[in-house]
Design goal:
Immunoglobulin-like, Ferric Hydroxamate Uptake Protein, Chain A, domain 1, elongated
């Protein structure tokens, strides 16, 4: 087998292996099918259809009339139930949120097959299957609320008991602003007083927790985020080790409708206030920030293949360009100080370090004070000049040897 064939085989195995992995950010629907008297109805055909992609999952109720549909992408769904001798039941607009276990009990009435009982879901189903406490930030909030720097994690503080973001100590590894720090800043969260070191972040079911400061390893662009959920208490065992907040994120996927977006955000010195430390008489320090990008998703369409209702794609891009000038406040020596005259500047005067000698009375060493606190000009000692000449000669010889190679 060639290397190309082996590579394609591994790719196919990875694609088909993904659905069987635990997807804690996915949603599920479970419930019971009963008749008007409350008796269980086994072998009812329950079909759950994604309204955006028209893909469906079909299951049968068991002997107790119970059914469970797992691994559903958050979004709007239609649920239908069919059983011989009973009128079909259709539920429209069932909204599933990230990580939700929604209970939907189906009540069927005796009737003809051409009769249909249709129920329009007007509200999100209640979470009654576990005791987890959290807040879902839906796609409407993610895509429409103002975000400084387009950091969607800022919306996490909308959840009760959650604080943090840019409140970490500056210049620390949690701030994300150090020159050697590549993690995105503004992602440190504290829930109900717990340290951010107790948090866990999951992106599409994959652990996205940076293991030093427990922030985000990858912070997706806003255009690519479908919604996310902040769990703050009573999380289930499926979330593992987290004792603080658990952030569940799910990214967007394509649908049957071709849709996209383009954006550009601009900041510059013309619209920003003057830096406090910049000279009032001078020009504003330059500042230009461009944050731009877009997204595109829809069905896959190729020659002789139409992916509608079957295969979808989604891609997004975000660029960030920032140029700024930082005003610095510093003290430069005066002409007298450059000449060695420090008279009246230092209260206790300045002393010649070359005159250091032991104190006959004991204690700290003593030195001789420069006359009039002025450092006299003096050449470097001969030993210092010789050492400097030797270093320069050695450097020149190494440079010549490298050039000859």
């Amino acid at each position: 087998m060639s290397k190309v064939c082996r590579f394609l085989s591994l790719c196919l195995l990875s694609v088909f292996a993904c659905p069987i992995m635990a997807q804690v950010e996915r949603a599920s629907i479970l419930g019971n099918a009963t008749d008007t008297s409350g008796a269980a109805l086994p072998n009812v055909v329950v079909t759950v259809t994604n309204e955006a992609t028209n893909t469906s999952v079909r299951v049968l109720t068991d002997s107790a009339g119970a059914f469970t549909v797992l691994n559903l992408i958050p979004g709007a769904y239609s649920v239908s139930a069919v059983f011989p001798g009973f009128a079909p039941v259709d539920y429209r607009g069932v909204e599933l949120q990230v990580g939700q276990q929604a209970r939907l009990n189906i009540h069927m009435e005796v009737g003809e097959l051409k009769q249909t009982v249709e129920v329009a879901a007007s509200a999100t189903l209640l979470q009654t299957e576990n005791a987890a406490v959290g807040q879902v930030i839906n796609n409407t909030a993610v895509s429409t609320l103002p975000l400084n720097g387009r950091n969607f994690v800022q919306l996490a503080i909308l959840a009760p008991g959650v604080t943090g973001l840019d409140y970490a100590q500056s210049a620390t590894i949690n701030s994300g602003t150090r020159p050697d720090e590549l993690r995105p800043g503004g992602t440190a969260l504290q829930a109900n007083g717990a340290s951010n070191y107790s948090n866990q972040v999951l992106l599409d079911g994959i652990d996205n927790t940076e293991m030093i400061s427990h922030t985000f390893v990858v912070r997706p662009a806003v255009e690519g985020v479908q919604e996310f959920k902040v769990l703050t208490n009573n999380t289930g065992a499926e979330y593992g080790r987290a004792g603080g907040a658990v952030v569940l994120m799910t990214t967007k996927s394509g649908t049957n409708r071709l849709a996209g977006s383009v954006f550009e955000y601009l900041r510059n010195e013309a619209t920003d206030a003057r830096n406090f430390f910049a000279l009032a008489s001078g020009p504003k320090p330059p500042y230009k920030l461009n944050q731009f990008g877009g997204s595109l998703g829809g069905p896959v369409k190729l020659p002789h293949y139409n992916g509608k209702d079957r295969t979808f794609f989604f891609a997004d891009y975000e660029g960030y360009r920032e140029v700024f000038g930082s005003p610095l406040v510093t003290t430069v020596p005066t002409a007298a100080e450059r000449a060695g005259n420090f008279q009246g500047i230092v209260t206790n005067g300045i002393f010649d370090p070359l005159t250091t000698s032991p104190n006959p009375a004991g204690g700290a060493n003593i030195r001789t004070r420069f006359p009039s606190d002025t450092i006299p000009g003096r050449p470097l000692p001969a030993s210092t000049d010789d050492r400097a000449r030797q270093q320069l000669h050695h450097h020149a010889r190494q440079t010549q040897q490298r050039a000859s190679r």
